[in-house]
Design brief:
By secondary structure, the protein is α/β, with parallel strands linked by helices. It has ten helices and 15 strands. It folds into two domains: 72 residues, Orthogonal Bundle (Arc Repressor Mutant, subunit A), CATH 1.10.10.10; 180 residues, Rossmann fold (3-Layer(aba) Sandwich). Strands 6-5-4-9-12-14-15 form a seven-stranded parallel β-sheet, sandwiched between helices. It has a three-stranded antiparallel β-sheet with strand order 1-3-2. The protein has a three-stranded antiparallel β-sheet with strand order 10-11-13. The two termini are 32 Å apart. About 7% of the residues have low confidence.
Length: 265
């Protein structure tokens, strides 16, 4: 469970019961008592509760509950409102280098899936005109590859988002289920400290999970700003991918022996 969510649930419990002991909270959330003490210290510092011997009690503040709810949403989740155009203008150098590092994984006669991410769009722009099948839910990638004579493009249908230039929903998911591909290239909105790869759109997450299911090799393209970022829905765990390509890991804790990690910087 994310720390922010646990803080919210702890505060709700204390609000409903006026107080709580460290041991009962530890048992309730299946974490150590030391973790609960740290949680209570953070809540007390933000003046939502007061510490008491062996636990905590509610601080008399009519606005406290609303403030904690708003903090959980506004500070701990990645902004999901960015349009595709805005994303293509952010961290362009890093995304270009990551895309270039992904090119050697693409071989002639491959059948691959590329998601709707801006990093995959940067990859599409660098693809050579070779015999290749590309399946995507991104209209932007379709348009980018349309001039390649040798590349076969399969566009996933479904509900169209003009803001993000992609297709999603049950029709797209059903279409993806019918394929079996060699590689899946994708990105995300955040990689949480718990090593969860996350996204802010439930529809995007469901589609990406189907894409993962039909792919032999999963290749995550994520620039350094994605790390230590929360977003609402979990796509998969970092150990669920085969290759991680980034410009730079923020720390060695994200390096896993089971994953081939490539840093471009």
């Amino acid at each position: 469970m994310l720390q922010a969510k646990r803080h919210l649930l702890i505060f709700r419990y204390i609000k409903e019961n006026d107080c709580a002991r460290v041991k009962e909270l530890s048992d309730m959330f299946s974490v150590s008592q030391e973790t609960i003490r740290r949680d209570l210290a953070i809540l007390a510092k933000s003046k939502k509760i007061v510490r008491s011997f062996g636990g905590a009690a509610l601080l008399e503040n009519n606005n406290a509950y609303l403030e904690v709810e708003q903090k959980a949403v506004s500070e701990n989740f990645v902004d999901t409102a960015e349009s595709f155009i805005k994303r293509t203008r952010e961290r362009t150098d890093a995304k270009t280098r990551i895309a270039k590092a992904a090119l050697p994984f693409i071989k002639e006669h491959d059948c691959i899936i590329m998601d709707n991410s801006s990093t995959c769009w940067f990859l599409a722009r660098q693809l050579p005109d070779i015999n290749l099948t590309v399946i995507t839910n991104s209209l932007n990638i379709v348009q980018t590859l349309a001039c390649r004579k040798k590349i076969r493009i399969i566009s996933v249908g479904g509900e169209y988002s003009e803001r993000h230039g992609d297709f999603h929903g049950p029709v797209a998911e059903l279409t993806i289920k019918s394929f079996k591909v060699s590689k899946f290239f994708f990105s995300c909105q955040g990689i949480a400290p718990e090593y969860d790869i996350r996204d802010g759109s439930e529809l995007n997450v469901r589609l990406k999970q189907e894409m993962l299911n039909v792919s032999d090799k999963k290749i995550l393209l994520a620039d350094s700003m994605k790390f230590d970022q929360y977003s609402l829905y979990k796509i998969c765990n970092l150990e669920g991918v085969d290759v991680l390509i980034t410009n730079k890991l923020p720390c060695e804790e994200y390096r896993c022996s089971k994953i081939q990690t490539i840093e471009t910087d």
